[in-house]
Amino acid sequence: MPDAAESNLSKRIAREVDDLRGRSQFRTLEAPSGINLSSNDYLGLASDPRLRDTVADVVARASAMGSTGSRLLSGNAPEWEQVEAEFARFAGTEAALYFGSGYTANVGLLSSILKPGDMVFSDALNHASLIDGMCLSGAKKIIYPHCSLAALETALEGYTDTPGAKLIVTESIFSMEGDVAPLVDLLRLAEKYGGSLIVDEAHATGVCGPEGRGIAADVGIERAILAAVHTCGKALASAGAFVCCNNTMKNYLINRARTFMFTTAMPPYLAGQIQGALALVRRADAQRDHLRRISEALRQGLAAAGIACGASRTHIVPVYLGSNEAALRVAAQLQRDGFAVRAIRPPTVPPGTARIRLSLTAEMALSDVRRLALAIDAAFKTLPQDAPTAAAHV
Fold it and tell me: Of these residues, 41, 48, 123, 171, which one is catalytic?
């Protein structure tokens, strides 16, 4: 009987893999080749020799290469407490707690602070890590249309007399759209209806706001929100994430967030890498300015060619194609032209909205971006005239 069950499971897995291939949703692991437009290394620090030298120095001075346990057991170290204090100052909050990844930070935060009977209001395009954290919490999840303040307020009004905590959760820069959430208005709605706001700053950290401190700092609400999550694996070219909050929230997470409590700590030398990256990020105004210029140039080039890129206002520029097949075809052509891009398909994005997600970095030259816009236009012209992408090429 166990053998038969295992056989049935194996067959089901094989059928699902075949189904992914049939729907042009099968993915493979590949190393990028050419100008990398899939990278989250927004400031180019991943290859910066200054950060490399910092890491070599902290590794040489490290007392151990491994943490040996969770931070509640043997894995805590002065280095982690120092970098948490420094990152809290950077984020403009009272405290910060480090997690091993942005995913575990979001899951640990939301699954621990929300309870059955609470209500969480989630933007329709929030990241999977936010969605998973909400689902694990047992709270009632209300999804509002992307960045729709009117729909969100209507939803909040519907729960005015309902007991339980109310929490609005949003990204600040949406990872597949490149647009910016209306954080001030979201906070206003949260306060009006007795709720709180949590912001995932993953794609804004290092890139937006004064010294790269994020969108919440840019609009001056960093102390008013319940928590912000800042990741280190993107513009900071490191790893992990900080939940930035007040001291009470930090102490609560240390005692309740399962993804913190039951995870082996990262090696303490990584704290030194994050501190080194943070120092470089604070002084990276020139890179941030260049990134804004080339992002705007790309959007202008695409608009001139009649190619839609939605409401993007940032270094993330989506090119909408609609069908999976069209996205794969355009991606393949761009790869042949020397651009490392990947087709983004469901379930990463909603069905019918397959796209090329262009992620710009400060290392790119303006000439590269102009050439990219021309290459995208040429790739669009190779699509069949009756392809379901006509609305994207307007």
Answer: 171
